[in-house]
Amino acid sequence: MKTLSRLIAPVVALSLLSGCAAVTRVSGAAEPLNSFTLAPATYPNAPVGGSGHIVIEEASTSGALATDRILIKPSRVQAAYLPQSRWTDPAPVLVQTLLLSSLQNAGGFRLVARDAKGLQPDFTLMTELRDFQAEAPAGAAPVVKVGMTLTLIREADRRILATRRLDASAAAASDGTADVVVAFDAATSQILGQAVAWVQSNAR
């Protein structure tokens, strides 16, 4: 029987050697270190200003998600990265920025900040990033999965007001890098819209 360490070793090697067919099938990553970002939710008719301060903490995560590389999972137990491509920020920071910008765009708060330095925030939003990857089994088009758990805290008494788990997925039109990123944007957009509505309804 193979030991766990022997099973893990090939998984680690995938990210270094790009030895998995699902990753080498991604055809659009020809130029070195192409950088990609995602769009926050927009609200053209959002109210101007608002009341209350909220701090959006950097998302917590672990393992293969704690990087600026674009994660690809050929199978449930394998992890690799899209060749020659990266996010503009590590995934936890990118998610923090998207939530912050989306809440700013939606209005309703006087201030939406990245940290509490020099502030006395009314609320803090904590995020656990659970999924942020494209799943690409051999012979199938990639499907992007984004999942996070949100926790809203009222700072006056450090009470947890609410917790919500959000999940979304989007199929890529092809295994090309641009199409995979578009699918990331579509799945993340679903999450951001739900997150903003949830925060606004519970921050009171």
Structure description:
- The chain has a single domain, classed as ABC-type transport auxiliary lipoprotein component (Rossmann fold), CATH 3.40.50.10610.
- It has four helices and eight strands, in the order H-H-E-E-E-E-H-E-E-E-E-H.
- It has helices at residues 4-17, 21-24, 91-106, 177-202, and strands spanning 34-36, 53-56, 69-73, 80-87, 111-113, 123-135, 143-154, 159-171.
- Strand 3 (69-73) and strand 4 (80-87) form a beta hairpin.
- The longest helix is centred in the C-terminal third of the chain and has 26 residues, at 177-202.
- Residues 1-29 form the signal peptide.
- It comes from Cereibacter changlensis JA139.
Helix and strand topology:
Blueprint: H1 4-17, H2 21-24, E1 34-36, E2 53-56, E3 69-73, E4 80-87, H3 91-106, E5 111-113, E6 123-135, E7 143-154, E8 159-171, H4 177-202
Parallel strand pairs: 1-4, 2-5, 2-6, 3-6
Antiparallel strand pairs: 3-4, 6-7, 7-8
Shape descriptor? elongated
The tally of beta strands, per DSSP, is 8
Whole-angstrom Rg: 19 Å
Indicate the CATH architecture.
3-Layer(aba) Sandwich
What is the average per-residue confidence, as pLDDT, rounded to a whole number?
A: 86
Oligomer: single chain
Q: Name the helicity range.
A: 25-40%
Name given to the CATH homologous superfamily: ABC-type transport auxiliary lipoprotein component
* Largest β-sheet summary: 8 strands, mixed
CATH topology, which one?
Rossmann fold
- Determine the strand fraction and express it as a percent band: 25-35%
- The residue ranges in which pLDDT falls below 50 over 5 or more consecutive positions are 1-25
H/E series: HHEEEEHEEEEH
The CATH first-level class comes to Alpha Beta
| Count of the domains | 1
